[in-house]
Structure formats: structure tokens, C-alpha cells
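Quick one before lunch.
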Amino acid sequence: MAKKQKKAAKPAKKAAKPARKVAKQAAKKAAAAKKVVKLVAKKNAARQNGDALPKPSSKPFGQAGRALDGVRILDFTHVQSGPTCTQLLAYMGADVIKVERPGVGDITRGQLRDVPNADSLYFTMLNGNKRSITIDSKHQKGREILDRLIKQCDVLVENFAPGALDRMGLTWEHIHKLNPRMIVASVKGFGPGPYEDCKVYENVAQCAGGSASTTGFREGPPLVTGAQIGDSGTGLHLALGITAALYQRIRTGRGQKVLCAMQDGVLNLARVKLRDQQRLAHGPLKEYSQFGEGVPFGKAVPRAGNDSGGGQPGWILKCKGWEEDPDAYIYFITQAPVWGAICDLIGKSEWKTDPDYATPNARLPRLKHIFATIEQWTMTLSKFEVMEKCNALDIPVGPILSMKEIAEEPSLRATGTVVEVDHPTRGKYLTVGNPIKLSDSPCEVKRSPLLGEHTDEILKDVLGYSAAEVAEIKGSGAITPQDKSARAEAA
Ligand code: CAO
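Model of the oxidized coenzyme A complex:
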């Protein structure tokens, strides 16, 4: 019997063997899968914190250097758009070397001068925290120095007229060959297309980017804005492009071209008007006061005066003293959630339940009358009193601040947004500090450089020229003003 049983058990054992094998294999597979999951999780965790990042610094915030320490910029910019960009990068710690034409420099040094023989505010307020070297880029020796600078810098920023950089011999191919890591960043008026060769200034960009046609009053002509959205706005865009390219370079090891067209920059800032252009196809723009006034819309987005850009109707209202003070006004927004508080504040509590005023839709055709009524109240108070009373009730309002008031505003001084700096030839002046506050990258705003102030220092310390070589360079005319015939000879 036992023998029989043993015999019978044999095939069972035989069957158990492959089952054990299968289980073993499955366990192996599961372990491998677990390993993969673990690996992926580890990789993802590393990605989340940034691959190969050092350990978090134990230094107190603000004492671990500045965001762009170690980044060196060859700054070939002039006027406003490019200098805005490089000043911001300098505020964030980049070593910005501004290359200027010997004896001339950035044209803005001499434009709109308020102090005789001193760099203008136009220049000083856009070129803080930079070093200046004079180099004649059309002089043979000058080009040699520039080639050496290209090898020593991470980014070249320029906003010459289209083709000017190429005419200097600084084509992308030339730069990329000398320094494949270099990022070449440009502001131009227009991107590739029919207008790419055009020179462009601020207001041209405001007009071509859709801002002017949508700014101003319906009855009036298109208007340009005081904010320099074409120049400074595009400079800001370029700074973002450069920092993104620097970040990508960590992975790729190579530079790239960064192009910001002023038309594109303005359009990006005016995108809500392109939004409205598309909404227009589906009916009138009800938040525009034109709708309440019964004026039909045309084919394109109209100028909306002081109408609020979003869905919360607003307007600029007179305040006490408006007869003498051109800035005694306040921007008043009739935000729906605080409508009841507005009614109580201006003594119109009955509007809270009146069907003609109680809902946002009911109010839309009556905005002109509503704002005229609110204005009767705001005219009894100064703009700051209106602000105080409204803010206490969470009603969004904004006083129209003059530049004088902004210059004297203590809170802007305290945050470093408005900074006073001293200058050796013009004395003290106010400038705008870094509007982007980084908690671990402090910004000390320094005065703009004098023309060629750092030429010797850069030639020696950055480019490694000996004292004898510097003397030779000076004699060559590559870094000093020259008359035309001497330059032609040296070219
Ligand atoms: N050494 C020798 N030559 C130099 C030099 C240097 N260090 N720096 C500049 N130059 C030369 C350029 O090579 C150029 O010469 P060519 O035309 O013979 O090649 C010349 O100076 C003038 O440059 P530019 O054409 O850029 O200057 P511009 O005054 O005629 O035009 C502007 C100014 C702003 C309209 C034009 O530069 C432009 O359209 N830039 C792009 C858009 C832009 O940034 N606009 C905003 C300006 S801020 O309002």
C-alpha cells in the first residue's frame, strides 16, 4: 500500500516541481518589477529636486551669494530695451560687461541731459550694476578683443538694428564656433517676416503690437501708454529667455539664440485684447461702457477708455481737489461681491435690492450713471481717504499716484524698489531697483559706470592681457576715440 502511495505521489511531486518553478519565477519577476518601481521613484525624486543638485545650503537666506553669480554677460545693448534686460540680470548677480563705442558710448548717455556734461538719467537708470569697456568693434584689434571676450562670457546680449551684429563680423556661426556654450540674445523690432529689417522704437512697437489701437477713448485717436511696454517690456521678456537658456545649457552644454521681437512682446502684454477680438465674434463686449451707451461695436476691438480690463466694471473718478491737482483721481472697481458695501458707503443702500442695480447684469447698461453717482461721493474726499474707507470694506480701488508721490513713497524706498544712488559726475539720483524680489539673492543697486570706466580692469583681469599688451592696445586706437581716417586704416 505504502509503495502504491509512493508511486501515486510521484507524479504529484513531478507536478509540484514546475509549480514551484513558476512561483519562483513569478517572485523573481515581482522583485525585478519592485526594483524598477523603486528606481523610477528614486529618479523622479531626484528630478523633483533637480538632478545632481548640491545639498540645501545651511547658510542663512541672503548669505549664499546671488542668483546669477558666475554668469558673465557681454552686453552689446543700447538705448532702452536691451539695457533693461542686462540691468535686471546684473541686479541678480551677473557680471555685465557693457561694450561701448570709444568716445561715444551708448547714445542715451547724452540724451535728455539734465546735468551738463554728466551722463543722463536715461542712461544712468538703465545701466546700474554694470561695467563699461570701450571697444571699436570695427577696428581689427577691437575685433580680436571681442573674440577674446566671447570666449570668456556666457551670454551676448544685443539690440542693434537688424544686420548690424553680422556687419561687425559677429555672426552666430562665428560666435558659436568660438564659444559653443554662448547664448546669443537679441531684441529686434519684428520677428521674421515682411518687417524684419525695420528699425523700431518704443511707440512703433506699441502700435504694431496691438496696444495703441486698444488704448485711449473711443472718440479719440489711438494712444501710446507711458509704461514702456515695447522697450522695457521686451527687455523683461529677453531676460526670461536668457535665464531659461542658461538653465537648458546645464543639460545640453551648448548655447542657443534667444530672440524677442518687440511686436511680440507688446502683443503678449496686450493678449486680453486679442481675447476680446475673438469674443466680439459672439456678440458685444458687455463690460465695455460702449455697450451700456448703446453704441454698436465694429469689426475690431475698440478703445475702451478707462473701462476695467476684466469682468469687474471700473472707472477713474474725480476726488477732492481735482480742479487743481491733475492726479486727484481714483480708480474705482464695482466688484460684485462687495456691491452691497459700495451701496452703503455712497449712501445708496436702496440699490442693493433695486432690480435695476442689484445684479451685475442689471448694472451693465447703467454703468455711466452708477459711476457718476459714486463720483459724487469720491469728490467729497481725497484719493487717500477714499482708499482708506474702501480698503476697510475690501472694495478694490487705486489712487492715481503721480511720479512725485511715487518718488517720495517711503514703502517703495523700504523695499528697494526706488533707490537713491550717488554718481561721481551727476550726484545723487533715484533709480528703480529690482522689482523681482528673491529671498536668497539680495540686490545692492550700484550706480551706472562712466564711459570705459572698467576698460583696463577688464582687459587685465577678465582677458588676461599684460600691462605691456594693454599699452599696445591703447596705442592701436581700438579702445580710444579715433578720427575716421585712422579707423579706416586700422579696419
Ligand atoms: N564700435 C563700432 N561701431 C559700433 C559700436 C562699437 N562699439 N557699437 C555700435 N556700433 C555701430 C553699429 O555697428 C552700427 O553700424 P552699421 O549700421 O554701420 O553696421 C551703428 O553703430 C548703429 O547701430 P544701430 O543701427 O543699431 O543704431 P541706430 O541708432 O541707427 O538705431 C535702433 C537704433 C534702436 C532703432 C536700432 O538699434 C534698432 O532697431 N534696434 C532693435 C530694436 C530695438 O531694440 N529698439 C528699441 C530701442 S530702445 O527705444
